[in-house]
Design goal:
- With 347 residues, the protein is an alpha/beta fold.
- 29% of the residues lie in helices and 18% in strands.
- It is built from twelve helices and twelve strands.
- A nine-stranded mixed β-sheet has the order 1-2-3-4-5-6-7-8-9.
- Strand 5, helix 10 and strand 6 form a beta-alpha-beta unit.
- The longest helix has 13 residues.
- The radius of gyration is 21 Å and the shape is globular.
- Keywords: 4Fe-4S, Elongation factor, Iron, Iron-sulfur, Isomerase, Metal-binding, Protein biosynthesis, Pyridoxal phosphate, S-adenosyl-L-methionine.
Length: 347
């Protein structure tokens, strides 16, 4: 058994384990955990400085999760867009394959909160059905492995999945979404990276939400992946009281670049039941994007996007920088002044 597997066995899953660590009554937390399970690695728990801080709020159950019953469990219609179990086919040329049903840490804002703690597995029969579907749809060129967390699969299981995909000639790229770089960095072993190199082009998207999540350990994990020739992107969720501050977000994006991770998406919170207390306004997100543009490297500016209900897909949310005035454009700079730009097309 590898070290990361041993460490997974020591995860905190019972709320009463928190009592001696933080000197608090966990009765309310326990009630929430009965409905929405709790799982926290010892590593990620160690990043908490005090109850209620940015790390605490992301992983500790909160009674506020019960106060949001108006939203749907599956607002993105993933279940309806699943032609075979475990596969989501929303866009014409790409699919999401849910290869794992577990994560190292159960995030309280999870877009698949309805599935957290489920015991579904990626049995060989299910895998073969997914591979057959992809093989029979030549328009699919991009496969995204998600879950749960694909990196919680053992290396040989993940290798079997990647090998199966690489035998389908029209699959051009494979992307893997993982939060283990944040919550279980020891999972990124030299053996895993050596195996992944065999299946290039492989892309990995990480999920850092706060500067405190970028540690020496997480930086080493990302370095191993980058040194294996794997481009790294990051998808951050905009979370109220955690990273909805221009300075916090700017520092997060700067630190990501420092560890060779390109900021990719800043996600507006999905309208998932049990997550309303994390939701900011779109105006707040646009203000944060304005706080990035021109105030730090363009490399540090992600796309701000919303995933529309009903499976209608991601749409970029852009500040209204531009308006037309006769034959010119009036463009507002990051300093606030309006610049006239002649919009002339040369023949």
């Amino acid at each position: 058994m590898n070290r990361w597997q041993k460490n997974l066995k020591t995860c905190v899953t019972a709320p009463d384990e928190l009592s001696p660590l933080f000197n608090l009554d966990t009765e309310d937390i326990a009630q929430v955990a009965k409905r929405y399970p709790m799982r926290i690695t010892r590593y990620y728990l160690g990043l908490i400085e005090r109850p209620g801080d940015a790390i605490w709020r992301q992983c500790i159950p909160d009674p506020l999760e019960f106060e949001d019953q108006a939203q749907m469990e599956d607002p993105l219609d993933e279940e309806l867009l699943s032609p075979v179990p475990g596969l989501i086919h929303r866009y014409p040329d790409r699919v999401v394959w849910l290869v794992s049903s577990v994560c190292a840490v159960y995030c309280r804002f999870c877009m698949r909160k309805r599935r957290v703690g489920c015991t579904e597995a990626t049995e060989t029969g299910t895998r073969q059905a997914v591979l057959a579907y992809i093989a029979n749809h030549p328009e699919i060129r991009d496969v995204i492995l998600s879950g749960g967390d694909p990196f919680l699969l053992e290396d040989d299981v993940l290798e079997e999945i990647l090998s199966g995909l690489r035998q389908i000639h029209h699959v051009e790229i494979i992307r893997i979404g993982t939060r283990t770089t944040v919550t279980l960095p020891e999972r990124i072993t030299t053996g895993l990276c050596r195996m992944l190199k065999k299946f290039h082009p492989i892309y990995v998207n990480t999920h850092f939400n706060h500067p405190k999540e970028i540690t020496a350990a997480s930086a080493r994990a990302c370095a191993r992946l980058a040194d294996a020739g794997i481009p790294l992107g990051n998808q951050t969720v905009l979370l109220k009281g955690i990273n909805d501050d221009p300075q916090v977000m700017k520092r997060l994006m700067q630190l990501l670049l420092k560890i060779r991770v390109k900021p990719y998406y800043l996600h507006q919170m999905d309208l998932v039941r049990g997550t309303a207390h994390f939701r900011t306004s779109i105006d707040r997100g646009l203000q944060i994007m304005e706080g990035l543009r021109g105030h730090t490297s363009g490399l540090a500016s992600p796309y701000y996007a919303i995933d529309l209900e009903g499976g209608k897909g991601k749409v970029p949310l852009l500040p209204e920088y531009v308006r037309r005035d006769d034959d010119s454009l009036l463009i507002r700079s990051y300093r606030g002044e309006v610049v006239r730009y002649r919009d002339v097309e040369k023949s």
